[in-house]
Amino acid sequence: MNMDTKILTVNTDNIDEEKLKEASSYIKNGDLVVFPTETVYGLGADGLNGKACEKIFKAKNRPIDNPLILHISQINQLDRLVSEIPEEAKLLAKNLWPGPLTMIFKKSKLIPDVVTATGDTVAIRMPKDPIARRFIDFCDTPIAAPSANISGRPSPTNASDVYFDMKGRVSVIIDGGNSQIGIESTVLDLTEDKPMILRPGFYTYEYIKGFLPNLVLDDSLVDDKVIPKSPGQKYKHYAPKAAMKIYVGEESAIRIYDEAREAKKSGKKVGILAFEQDISKFYDFDFVSLGDKNNLLEMSHVLFSALRILDKKGVDLILAQGVEDKDLGKSIMNRMKKSAAGNVIYL
Ligand code: TXA
Ligand code: MG
């Protein structure tokens, strides 16, 4: 794949609609357009055009059995995409859409097989990012979009990280600056007896339970050894090129320091992900701050780009501080553990 990739820079506070119209013409033509959302950048195609959606899988080397999310910009676009809308979905759509929530419905006949990986359910999200919403409006079709990274790599949260992975593979990248949130949407299945979180995200289990008291977590989110229900959660994911190890607990900075020093002695190039409070210990290594250890919002904002920064420095080993597995920390640790292939030590 080696097509021309056009960059269209759009300012969120003063949206140039002509550029979004131009980008939408590529979608209508069956081509791929990367667009910003409040979570991470999406690799978009016309969600009702099976041939266009197939291009997504090729562009990012995505396994064909991993279904796509359809993105809508208006609630009235939902009806024809699904065969039923449960009351729970109506409640959440009213309160949490537009926003970082993806809901799984029984699909309608309109949806191409490639979108759902031949399954009978479809994932739908209405993003909040104003550029995303305006862009989808102009496309006048639901936009199928996974995160705009090569499969297995950290999701991109800015256009330069998108470009690194997608140059020559997509027609257009809309550059809308840094993603506001930085980790992907919460994926919620509403097609079984009880509503179930398949992928934790910005909206936490604790928060959604306030709307749906019978909410449950997929077993794999409680026990690391269980195989996840959501196809995308099964793969090695968000992975930097380096081996990675996470330490959680009071002594984590000291343990990481000792291990980093040993690894350096044995000739390894070591990268550190540490909290702002501890970062000054690591000036002898390649380091990126995860922000204040109590600021989970900032941490979710910087995590993926931090992994990419260390990758670019060519480190062999990444040692990272982790957080407690609750609230937004659960979503952050979900991504971190996958990056580290489960290599986490609780002190
Ligand atoms: O924030 C986000 O969700 C971003 C932005 C671009 O919207 N998108 C995103 O897409 O993260 P992707 O493809 O990287 O992750 C979608 C996840 C995968 O784990 C996939 O397996 C799951 O949602 N999924 C999609 N359709 C599904 C379905 N019908 N049933 C169960 N899981 C599904
Ligand atoms: Mg992804």
CA radius of gyration: 20 Å
What is the helix content? Answer: 25-40%
Calculate the terminal CA-CA distance, rounded to whole Å.
46 Å
* Strand order in the largest sheet: 1-8-2-3-7-4-6-5-9-10-11
Low-pLDDT stretches are none
* Number of separate strands: 16
Identify the bound ligands.
Answer: threonylcarbamoyladenylate, magnesium ion
Count helical runs.
11
Shape, please? Answer: globular
The arrangement of helices and strands along the chain is EHEEHEHEHEHEHEEEHEHEHEEHEHE
The biggest sheet amounts to: 11 strands, mixed
Structural class: alpha/beta
Q: Strand fraction band?
A: 15-25%
User: Averaging pLDDT over every residue, what do you get?
Assistant: 95
Describe this structure in words.
The chain has an 11-stranded mixed β-sheet with strand order 1-8-2-3-7-4-6-5-9-10-11, with helices on both faces. Strands 14-13-15-12-16 form a 5-stranded parallel β-sheet, with helices on both faces. The chain is an alpha/beta fold. It has helices at residues 17-28, 50-60, 87-96, 113-116, 130-139, 159-166, 205-209, 231-234, 252-265, 296-312, 328-339, and strands at 6-9, 33-35, 42-46, 69-71, 101-106, 121-125, 143-144, 172-175, 186-189, 196-199, 216-217, 243-248, 270-274, 286-289, 317-321, 344-346. The model has no long low-confidence stretch (mean pLDDT 95). The protein starts with 5 loop residues before the first strand and ends with a strand. The longest helix is centred in the C-terminal third of the chain and has 17 residues, at 296-312. It has 11 helices and 16 strands. A hairpin with a 6-residue loop joins strand 2 and strand 3 (42-46). The structure holds threonylcarbamoyladenylate (TXA) and magnesium ion. Residues 37, 39-40, 42, 66-69, 100, 102, 104, 116, 119, 121-123, 125, 145-147, 184-185, 187, 198-199, 230-233 line the site of threonylcarbamoyladenylate. Threonylcarbamoyladenylate is lined by residues 37, 39-40, 42, 66-69, 100, 102, 104, 116, 119, 121-123, 125, 145-147, 184-185, 187, 198-199, 230-233.
